[in-house]
Amino acid sequence: MSTDFENELRDLFREKAGEAPLARPSLPASAPKQVLRRGRLHQVGTVLGSAAVVVALIVGSVAGLTRILGEGGSDRDIGGGSEVFRRTVTVEAFTVGSPSDWYLVNRWPLSMLIAVEGSGGSSSACVAVPGGTVQECEDTPGAETSSPIPVPYGLPMLQLSNVDLGLGANACEGGLSPDAAVLYVAMDYERSIADGGAGLDPFPPGEPGIPPVGDGPCGPGRYAHFTVNGEPFFTWIGVGTGVSAEDREIVETSYEMMSAIPDWEPSPPNETTPAYVIAGGAYGPGDEWRLELRYQGDSLRLSLEDGPAPQVLVVDESAAPVAWSGADPIFGAVVEGATGVEFLAQEGTETFVALGGSPIPGTIVPVPPTIDAFDLDLFFIDPPGPNGELVGDVAVLGVDAETTPSAPPVGEPREEVVELSGVYEGATWRVAFTGRFDDQSACIEPLIDGDVFGQTCPEPVNSTLASGYPPHLESWSGTFFLRAGSVPIEVVEIRFVSDDDAIVPTDFLCEMGPSGWTGPDVKVCVQLLPTSGYGTIEYVDAAGNVVADEGMAWGTGTAEPEAPTPVNPVHGGTYWAVYPWVGAPGSREADDVSASLLQEFGIEASPGDLACDEGAAEALGTDAEQGIGVYFETEDEANAFAHQAGLLGHEADPAIARVTTYCLD
Fold this sequence. Notes:
Blueprint: H1 3-19, H2 33-36, H3 44-49, E1 53-56, H4 61-69, E2 86-91, E3 94-99, E4 103-106, H5 108-114, E5 116-119, E6 155-161, H6 171-174, E7 181-187, H7 189-194, E8 213-214, E9 221-228, E10 231-239, H8 245-256, E11 259-260, E12 275-284, E13 287-296, E14 299-305, E15 311-315, E16 322-325, E17 330-335, E18 340-345, H9 350-354, E19 360-361, E20 363-366, E21 376-381, E22 392-397, E23 418-424, E24 427-434, E25 443-448, E26 451-452, E27 472-477, E28 481-488, E29 491-498, E30 507-512, E31 522-529, E32 533-541, E33 546-554, E34 574-583, H10 588-601, E35 608-609, E36 613-614, H11 616-620, E37 626-632, H12 635-644, E38 655-661
Antiparallel strand pairs: 1-5, 2-3, 3-11, 4-6, 4-12, 6-7, 7-10, 8-9, 9-10, 12-13, 13-14, 14-15, 16-17, 17-21, 18-19, 18-22, 20-21, 23-24, 24-25, 25-26, 27-28, 28-31, 29-32, 30-31, 32-33, 34-37, 34-38, 35-37, 36-38
Helix pairs in contact: 1-8
């Protein structure tokens, strides 16, 4: 890295530091916009420091995530058409700048899972550590218990490093390799429990410049201790013995130019796992966005985090040459080897006029080495000025690829309720799609010949109506077989291929979903089939590619598609789990479900403590003590089993959740 680039970087940091909201006297004394746009969570200082709070650490969570998140050191590898750019991003309480070939990880979603609260003035609460000893707690009115477990390395918020350490690595806890340089920012958990940060100055602490050299919870390095809106934090600048003078300068400058949002308050994150922060920006003062990358099953999940309902794009090798979201900024994935991408507004539209008719170039960013499983790069395009509906195409440069069809515009006006209707085999049908994803009120209501034919309001929608592939269409049997639900926006056709080569009359209809069916944006579809059959349902995109398929048999159809094979979970393992039953211990219904699974699928499954499956209770939205889980390696297998077993489309749908299993030692 040249000296000129270092100087430019330092100048940029100083410029951004001046723009950052360290003090905003011109703004009214109200909560910042990003806080108002998201649901509130009790202030973490209260959660961690009050005598009315029970805190426990889910000590196995990091280890359980390591296998799927990747871990280890990897040198920087820009490659392709990528160029190093100056990245300035707000991650929760802090705005930090760095070159784009450094790896910035948002670790706060995992920290918020680690800090588990139980509170109240009327009773105490005990939080069990999965796999650990169950605590006996008094449950007397007015009695409260505090049971902290020390966390010397804090609750990490962000981690910036010159080498790719992987999403599962905590540099403070795991130590540094000789070539690693790290800026680590964490909530000071032990100090919060002890004294709430008494005696600490707000950020930035002490004299300007980098903090002094010393020793601390992360080992040798430079430490600073301070508060943000009363919450105690510490930073650590750690450098290995072999770090170059250039990288040492960069990591120290990143700290020196870092700023804090003085009125920051914690809010529930949209995700539960750490993520690489690819890029960031702001729509206006206090209204930031950032682009994050994490795993989703065997695919990559890109999310535009700018509020409570982020835009999400899930990609794998089928995304080539380009897959993109019509959000602002536009983001997506492009085939490796592309030298550039650009947005071409459609002539005659407001977008074309607003952008002056010129192509808007994008920025290509390589996938970090530890999760680079596909021949893809990432990209984002940030058109100037505020934009509503973006109408146009994304073109790929430098490879033999045609301009792809435009993604359905996110800003497209939508109805609160979408109704699809028609006539099939002499019967009149109508399906209404109502509610919202963000408050779990999404519902599907079919009517056939004027009669309500049932209703489904699955919960949570993130593992039913709002998930990816295979799409989740609920089903009803009557004078014909009706399937209704949501599909990803790239699907333009749903077709049925019979296994016995019979000609099966089918029909389907799709429209963009209601205004509340967002995060991700989806279409809503209805598929109509005869009363019985067996074969394959195919979901097809605009290019004629089958992007997903699933085997189905219904009615008197006799050919049963091969059921996915479940796995035997191990202690600390992470899986996709299907829960056909949850409830109280001793339920006869649980015995019936276990017997059915054994008889129909040869699966031996019995009720177990739901608390031993970390993430299950949250996904199911239940306080039930027990559940029956069937575990799979991939989300697609879990979805396919739920459909195959006929478990979906009933009054009590089972949930499909990403869980880490404990209590199996």
